[in-house]
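Researcher: Structure prediction, please.
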Amino acid sequence: MRAAVWGAGRVGQALAYRLVTLPCTTELYWTNRRLRRVTSRCVDLSHGLAFMQTCRRVTDVDQERVTPVLRRVDVLVVTQGRAVVEGATRNDVYVANREVLRETVIRHLRAAGDGFRGVVLVVTNPVDLMTRLIHEETDVPAERIIGLGTVVETARLQSALGSHLMPPRPARDVWAYAIGTHDDLFVPVVPAEPGVGIEVERAWLDRRIEAARLEVVQAASRVKIDQGATVHPIVEGVISIISALVEDTQRVLTVSTLDEQSEDRLFYSVPCTLGQRGILHKHLKVLDRPEISERLKRCKDSMRKILQASGDL
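Model: Predicted structure follows.
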């Protein structure tokens, strides 16, 4: 796999270092608006390639010369953009990051045209709206434009619920999804039997779901108190998506994807099967439940307000 990372903030840096250790990565390209932020780090990564299983080359790329690279890569991960400052929300950086992506990623994807055959994986916040923006302003098919979405919220929800069970279960053994938007409005979806051999009363489970939801909402703030940012679950979420795409594992993850039924062409997270062609299938049956569809409507309305206020709707 030839992978490209666009951005050199905390997540971009951590992701670049993680990608070279991935067994399916053969080449890594790294670009940023300020190239000097990645040049020395690419040298550092190159010095460790003798210990890597498959990665043979790490290349820093001037942003103005990135178009030919896009015609060669299998996955482009977009982390470029302004960070969310203390006291603000992800939605507060929409207008600023819209202009950043238009000047950089979108401009070069347009220039690459049909030559870009890979998948765009968007991490830049607000992720659902940034994913929609790239879809609206490039010719990349919707199934090959994926937002990180609520992959991290899902992981945190599974972890929180697992800790409430008796005996406690590891997150990977808990069946639960967070769908909707990558913010506090996300909707937890948990079956009556939340895992193999886990049988609980529905009333008890509903109380634990609400407690777990609050834990997820507060999780990032708790981490940021000491560390300033949450990085690890984001990076591992991206790696899980990339592995599913490249290895064609057809794993189900809650990525942000186009709602074809939406007049406003909104993107939000639902459980999706991922494979080499991008999004292979969307599991939408859960959306038929009235209590889920009502809460999901709040997510959509919130995005519409932001788009209307910014003149994009």
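Model: The first helix runs from residue 10 to 19.
Researcher: Thanks, that helps.
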